[in-house]
Amino acid sequence: MRRFFLLVRGLYTSASGALVAESMVDNVANNLANVNTSGFKQTLLQIQSAPSLDIYRIQTDPGKTAGNPLPGRPVSQEVGELGTGALIYDTPTSFTQGPLQQTGNPLDVAISGNANAFFTVQTPNGVRYTRDGEFAEDAQGILRTRDGNTVLNTQGQQIQLQQQGQVTIEQDGTIVQNGVTVGQLALTQFNSLLNLRPEGVNLYNPSGNAGPSPTTAATVQQGMLETSNSSVVKSMVDLITAERWFDANEKSIMTQDNATQTAISVVGKTS
Question: How far apart are CA 106 and CA 223, in angstroms?
């Protein structure tokens, strides 16, 4: 019976590895799909070993066990540990700055010099943060993201542009149009990026001890966009690794399944 337990446990162990490999493929696919998305930050996958089991051998023949304190009683002897597979510990976001690309659009802006700084926007679900500076003005002249969210100024209000006139965005985020300051982009930094979780398209929602606060330790570049920090080459290597990992676990499952069938057949013949 103990042998059957070990065989079934092996199936579960291999299955857990295959599930982790499947999640890794999904994660890499998402990073590849957003390789051309402005301000996108790739998601990493942290994997850890599942809790192991202590394996003991029960000695039922006390005559073969030296120093048996209780003759006639079975004695357990520790054999070692049995791994139970792998599991996903966390899926953190890598906030390293992506390359800057020049667009020439006066309403395109990129944050440089501080990977911990974000634009502040108003969404239907509340205030959120983004690195995507692909802005545009709507029919009323309000500055918005490409998804329609309102870009906020340092006072937490919307930014109203004039109907005509060239827009100049200075390095501190001040927006000048026709010689008049119409607002200043609100730049926010966080005490802990670990508590900043992705939400929707290129938006981040702080939780726990994220600690959002205004920052001036960042430079805004007009007419430029920050591209994705996802690497195509690295993603392809990770994808190949995940596929090989899945194949290895799949073969292990098949091998253990065949061994289980053989064991059942042998038990059936001897019973």
Answer: 5
The reported pLDDT for the residue numbered 271 is 58
Locate the DSSP E strands across the chain. 46-49, 53-59, 75-82, 86-90, 100-102, 109-112, 117-123, 126-130, 135-137, 143-145, 150-151, 167-169, 174-177, 180-184, 187-190, 196-199, 203-206, 212-214, 219-222, 224-226
For residue 155, give the 3-state DSSP assignment.
Answer: coil
Please enumerate in sequence order all residues whose Cβ is within 8 A of that of 269, keeping only pairs 6 or more positions apart, or say none. Answer: none
Instruction: Identify the segments of the chain with pLDDT beneath 50.
Output: 1-4
Q: What is the pTM of this model?
A: 0.77
Write down the residue that tokens 């430079």 correspond to.
219
Domains and their CATH numbers in the chain? 2-50+85-92+231-270 (1.10.287), 100-226 (no CATH)
Task: Please tell me the chain's helix, strand, coil percentages from 3-state DSSP, rounded to the nearest 5.
Answer: 30, 35, 35
| Cα four-point dihedral sign 136, 139, 144, 148 | negative
